[in-house]
Specification:
With 162 residues, the protein is α+β, with helices and mostly antiparallel strands. It has a single domain, classed as Elongation Factor Tu (Ef-tu), domain 3, CATH 2.40.30. It is 19% helix and 23% strand. The chain contains 3 helices and 6 strands, in the order ααββββαββ. The protein has a 6-stranded antiparallel beta barrel. The longest helix is centred in the first third of the chain and has 11 residues.
Length: 162
């Protein structure tokens, strides 16, 4: 199980308790299927698999390849699993709202840090208007993961920000 996985950089073969593993995964911004996105209901780009090398654009054939390739080369990725931080502890399953509009759902939670499947375009629009983004009544901040090669609110699929 993933909860018994070794932490990168913490020593070869080191293991972690499930809560510590998930807190570390959430802090890094790495989503887990079934917790942060529904299996069979998310495109690879939405689950950050394009950025985390979970899908190859150079080899093989797979079901849905045409759509995935089109997203990689031409489309803006509007919805992604993104790391968020609340001003207070967060709750898994809470709706993420910008004003009165629901723009996402909180997935995995580790106190004030969480991962959420959110419409990044709507988050950006809310911030441009000065509207707060919240999970329930808790104000949120979008956290840029160190592994993301671009600004989550400004990037196109497959393109890096200058």
């Amino acid at each position: 199980m993933l909860a018994e996985a070794a932490f990168a950089g913490d020593g070869i073969g080191a293991t972690a308790e499930p809560d510590a593993y998930h807190a570390h995964r959430i802090a890094l911004g790495v989503p887990e299927g079934g917790k942060d996105y529904a299996f069979g209901d998310a495109f690879p780009h939405e689950a950050d698999l394009d950025l985390l090398h979970g899908v190859s654009f150079d080899k093989g054939c797979f079901v849905g390849q045409e759509v995935v390739s089109r997203m990689q080369h031409r489309a803006n990725i509007r919805k992604r699993v993104a790391p968020i931080e609340g001003e207070a502890p967060l709750t898994s399953g809470a709706e993420v709202t910008a004003g009165t509009a629901v723009i996402g759902t909180v997935g995995s939670v580790a106190d004030r840090l969480a991962l959420a499947m959110v419409r990044l375009d709507r988050w950006g629009e809310a911030k441009a208007k000065g509207e707060p983004v919240r999970a329930g009544s808790v104000p949120l901040t979008l956290r840029q993961p160190a592994w993301a090669p671009f600004d989550l609110l400004a990037a196109k699929a497959g393109a890096e920000a200058p």
